[in-house]
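agent> fetching stored inputs for the 1,2,3,4,5,6-hexahydroxy-cyclohexane docking request
agent> found them:
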Amino acid sequence: MTILVEQLDSEIGAEEKKVPAEETDLVLLDGGFVVPGANSFGQTFRDYEVDSARQKGVEEFYRTNHINQTYDFVKMMREEYGKLNRVEMSIWECCELLNEFVDESDPDLDEPQIEHLLQTAEAIRKDYPNEDWLHLTGLVHDLGKVLLHPIFGQLPQWAVVGDTYPVGCAFDESVVHHKYFEENPDYNNPAYNTKYGVYSENCGLNNVMMSWGHDDYMYMVAKENNTTLPSAGLFIIRYHSFYALHRAGAYKHLMNEEDIENLKWLKIFNKYDLYSKSKVRIDVEKVKPYYLSLIEKYFPAKLSW
Ligand SMILES: O[C@H]1[C@H](O)[C@@H](O)[C@H](O)[C@@H](O)[C@H]1O
Ligand SMILES: [Fe+2]
Ligand SMILES: [Fe+2]
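agent> prediction call returned; pasting tokens
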């Protein structure tokens, strides 16, 4: 597949043009971006309204996710999983563990997760050959989905995958299937349901509690195990599912200067995360030596998870 990025600056803030999937194979986006017009099910990417069996499952996923992700729940999960006392393993071992999982929140992909990791990383590598940290970020960004595994207590999908959003302040309308938040106990709690809630203007995303899932968990793992990935890589890992921010531009009032800088890279990354999803398989054995060399450069041999 081809994803062209002309220039970092011209891309920032570019909105995508909606062209019906059947009209063209490739959709031209502002900023010189060329992406496929349809996902592997023949539908436009991230269309949460289309009527299909897979979409019904996705909607049910978001219903349970929105009801259960409360401020208290997130606090508890952060404390529990922040202990990193479950297992010692390498990055590659974790990639292999993900082989068995399919993400129920994803309308665009029903392949095992390891395929998605390599598809993302390889698509970035093609267009940004010199940014090896970004290739590796592609490989590791979804490793937190290992929380689905019995070793980690086999968390339900609603506590691991899907888009993320801040808790402790009002849920923005741009979050997919927003209506299901009405059944979240925080929805009617005056401490948590105003624009700022427990936060203050430009407090920085680092001080914001995001709904619990694979992003925040993998960020913790990478940081606590002293990765040498740059700050933009860690930011991508932590906020790549925060579509309300990087797609819809909501919650900007919580960002600080550093977040604004890092968001530029997240927007670039997102194109590869999303549009590289396809049925085209990557030859794992062929690319493995390259990724092992990157893992060695940026991570310890074994990490605490
Ligand atoms: O369904 C997907 C999937 O869970 C991704 O890993 C996540 O990053 C996206 O935000 C979400 O929409
Ligand atoms: Fe993800
Ligand atoms: Fe992903």
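agent> quick read of the result: The first strand starts at residue 26 and ends at 29.
agent> awaiting further instructions
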